[in-house]
Amino acid sequence: MSDLLKRLRGRGWRLTAQRRVVAEVLDGDHVHYTADEVHALAADRLPEISRATVYNTLGELVSLGEVIEVSTDGRAKRYDPNAHHAHQHLVCARCGTIRDVHPVGDLLAGLPARERFGFAVSAVEVTYRGVCPDCAA
User: Which pLDDT does position 1 carry in this prediction?
Assistant: First the structure.
């Protein structure tokens, strides 16, 4: 059983066949599918699943804090199930591939106090951009 399914069960979230297949599609370390990709993969497993059900389920998972919605450069939103492990993203500027990365150190330490303008910062989001090996070849 995937980490996401375990977390959802632990929350008492009702796992219908449709919700379960969406959660199963999102299983993996570097999963960043668009809603349409989730729908296509879910439909391979459960042909009767509707696009609306996939969109609604993804919305619920984001609202629950179990999936992160990732937006990069005006491309389609992607969904990351790695919501409970601090990480940043590495994005290919050409094909849009996204990988999770785990920088060492305190990312907030790079922001001097004078640049915080009195904000009590609660989170840091950094996106590293470059070209993946497939696109560079």
Answer: 54
